[in-house]
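Complex record, four chains
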Amino acid sequence: MALLLIVCLLDGMRDEAQQKPMARLDESLLTHLPPFSRLDNRQIRDILDQATSKRYNEGVTVFGEGEEAERFFMLLDGYIRVMRITDTGEQVIALHIPSGQLFGIARALGRDTYPATAVTASEAIILSWPTRLWDHFASYDGFTTETYKTVGKRIGEMNTRIVELATQQVEQRIANALLRLVNQTGRKVEDGIEVDFPITRQDLSEMTASTLHTVSRLLSAWEKDGIVKSRRKRIVVSDPHRLVLLSQPH
Amino acid sequence: MALLLIVCLLDGMRDEAQQKPMARLDESLLTHLPPFSRLDNRQIRDILDQATSKRYNEGVTVFGEGEEAERFFMLLDGYIRVMRITDTGEQVIALHIPSGQLFGIARALGRDTYPATAVTASEAIILSWPTRLWDHFASYDGFTTETYKTVGKRIGEMNTRIVELATQQVEQRIANALLRLVNQTGRKVEDGIEVDFPITRQDLSEMTASTLHTVSRLLSAWEKDGIVKSRRKRIVVSDPHRLVLLSQPH
DNA sequence: CACGAAGTTTGCGCCAGCACAACGTTCGCG
DNA sequence: CGCGAACGTTGTGCTGGCGCAAACTTCGTG
């Protein structure tokens, strides 16, 4: 709810400077996001005063793997796709980050460079700060604690990912990926739940270590069975329950 | 080097109480381990005074996935295998932890339960502390910083793991797994570098999401080519360079 | 509204690697 | 030192899902 407000405020800035301090932004709006929830007003204002805001179109690279970690980021609206590219040019999507989370916090894990590439999966609004401010903010009560909770969750997701890749069939992996998307970023629509950002079969194949072709085939089959409905870049899950069945072995 | 000393000291305790305070242990021995390297003598003594020491045989479960995270651990000697078990009973090995690292630090990531199962991959000597002490130690300068560096590294490894599973052929994955084992835990022997703890083909297959049979076949083929030498539970890599070639696409 | 780019569908053949099976080898233990 | 269990090897057949190819649909743009 708070986020919507922020977005409106920021929309006004769309045609102005793409990067500018956020002095205008009401600090109460950030209060409910986990990393900031335990901070007092003075601290929040301090953080906001030093933030840079920027609006990104879909498919823009926020930072690349191996680059020096000069800034860290807070996603206010939209979705971020975290991916790596192999020597042979294949892309692997590691995870999707929903709004309200910090990302690119290499510094918090003692790294000097970003370990992966972050690309906007939809239009996005992002605050960012120079990395050197991390230690300063880290002294604020609860800031790091909440951050590391997020890290812990992501580790859990990665573990699950590994187990899935290691043990499940393609159909189950794709079903799982879709369920995860719908759970984490789903939006209720008339005939089911829709993934809240544009997603192609190619993307799904990169999330599940399969191929565009296989994903396409399966989605077609599922559509025939009335489990999903999809159009270009949009996927609606109309029968989540049957998808859950498909996602489990046998 | 310091570790060897510790091990000797502890060996003396082998037949005494399996669990007892470590008051006797010279604090200077822990000084060089990353999590403690920036601590002063008083702090190290404080940490040691509250530690419990225990010796484990090979193949013993230290903690299980989902259990309440009552303690956190420091591996002084040996190796730990971190694994998860799927609903269908398949095991997946997530990573191996070498001596000198903290593990089971769910608390540091805001979790109440352990996210995976930890089993000793060899005989091991482990210190542990009640979880509630974490926050106390965390106030010591550098303790958490160094810990989170380790977490960062493990995240990197997991990412690599995911990319490997997603893009590489079985032969390359097994070659990679073997190279990683040899790099991280290798011990020089006469005719090459040996994995420093007992490892079965089954283990390797669980690390690479393949089967015992395939691993066995490949190791046999490699042995015929003079790349590795293996006997029961032991693997020696005699020609790492050619293994690197095998680990890369084409 | 015509064109190109991006996204999607579908058919077909093939092969890496799994399942199944049976046997050989090493180790620990009484 | 003999037995059983754990660990390792090898052969054979089969199939899921990938590679390749070609055509179709939707969208944005000038």
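Note: Chain A touches chain B at residues 84, 86-88, 90, 92, 94, 106, 108-111, 115-116, 145-146, 148-149, 151-152, 154-156, 158-159, 161-163, 165-167, 209, 248-249 (CB under 8 Å).
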